[in-house]
Amino acid sequence: MNTTTLNTNPLWAYLQLMRPANIITAWADIMAGFAASGYFIQIDLVQLLWLLLATTGLYGGGIVFNDVFDTELDAKERPERPIPSGRASRTGAILLGTILLIVGVLAAVQVSWVSGVLALAIATSALLYDAFGKHQPIFGPINMGFCRGGNLLLGVSVVPGLIGDYWFLALIPIVYIAAITALSRGEVHGGKLSTGITALLLIVAVIFGLLGLGLLTNYQVFTALPFLLLLAIRVLIPFIKAARQPTPEQIRIAVKAGVLSLIILDTTLAAGFAGLSYGLLVLILLPISMILSQIFAVT
Question: Residue span of the signal peptide, if any (predicted)?
Answer without folding.
Answer: none
